[in-house]
Write a structure and sequence with these properties.
Elements lengths: L2 H6 L11 H17 L10 H21 L4 H27 L5 H23 L1 H4 L3
Helix pairs in contact: 2-3, 2-5, 3-4, 4-5
Length: about 130
Amino acid sequence: MSEEALNLRKPLVKRHTDLEVYQLAFTAAMEVFELSKRFPKEETYSLTDQMSRSSRSVCANLAEAWRKRRYEAAFISKLGECEAEAAETQTWLQVAVQCGYLERETVKKLFQDYDHVIAMLVRMITNADHWTIK
């Protein structure tokens, strides 16, 4: 194999934290956490809690999916849960903007990051046989 071809190879994924989608989702979850600190106290047990829970759940479900990749159906199911949690987080971000807790421009990149996470998850689901253990 040529040196150029070796340089183009993606790094080996040994654990869920090595996945680009996990890293993006984790970074986004931490940003959601930081943004939610700005919310009024009366939102602590509603919007703040829901947004934090769903954003963190994307990462947690990815970890579970990675450990279930011996069983393609279980792997796909968990990835589907990740996708749903990412979309739920987008909904809570929209609610936060509509309520006036966050500026639309502040949320724009984060919303796009979740679009990217969802697209990556869909590709993983579509190509699950590439990811599962035979």
